Predict the 3D structure of the following.
Amino acid sequence: MDMQTDRVADLMQDRRFRFFEGDITINKEWIEYHIRKCDTVIPLVAIATPATYVKQPLRVFELDFEANLPIVRSCVKHGKRLLFPSTSEVYGMCRDAEFDPESSELVLGPIAKSRWIYACAKQLMDRVIWAYGTEMKLDFTLFRPFNWIGAGLDSIGTPKEGSSRVITQFFGHIVRGENIKLVDGGGQKRAFTYVDDGIDALMKIIDNRDRVASGKIYNIGNPKNNYSVKQLAGMMVELALEYPEYRAKAKKVRIVNTTAAAYYGKGYQDVQHRVPKIENTCSDLKWKPRVGMRSALKRIFDAYRTHVAEARHLVD
């Protein structure tokens, strides 16, 4: 129930796939009608770009929490299973070496730092869903993606800084021959997860063999792919030089520093590390992440390489 079809264009002709276009902020009765027809509901609608947290915090709250709450309540009302995408952001500035879904404290910054509205909205929804499970027997699973990456995550044709997630942002800069800006030096570390690994875990949650995932919270991430943003930028530029399609523009790229206030705005505050503890995910779901960082980046570069016309348009 997305408002656009570009990211599922390759699925539109598949007989197993059905696409319905609607707006969850307007077509509420229509949404409930479709929920009644489902066995499992995965509400993926959300704003998840840091620049928007800072510049349009109300928009983030209204969509990510308020517009999704009726979907949660419809699942309760009609006895449907709910798989809700939480986020690694809910851990905030937790100081644990690894973020544990069962015991880590969820630490957010001051009210004046509006970037936390996304994490706060998602955390509140987690708590509401947990309460519905406890009080009204909602069958749910919360899953927390840790920096999933892959081709098509965001538009690489969007040049505005902060308008997409870091991999897409950096890749767009590289194919346009633009400098890559590191916020506050780029020392922040993230554990990146290739989308195929993430989807493998999600499919096991959907399957829910022996109801193992019911009432659980799972981190879905790859602790071994823990790199700083500065390291990521260097890896991506180095890899781009190996491709004839990207080499000329990549040679023009310089990695420079900027401040968080200049890049995102005064309401931004960053987290220095975010590593998932995935023991329960691995043991319950018989799953483990397999794709290393260089392999993940190469798959992304290869995917865009196959779109020759688009690549030429971007690099010319």
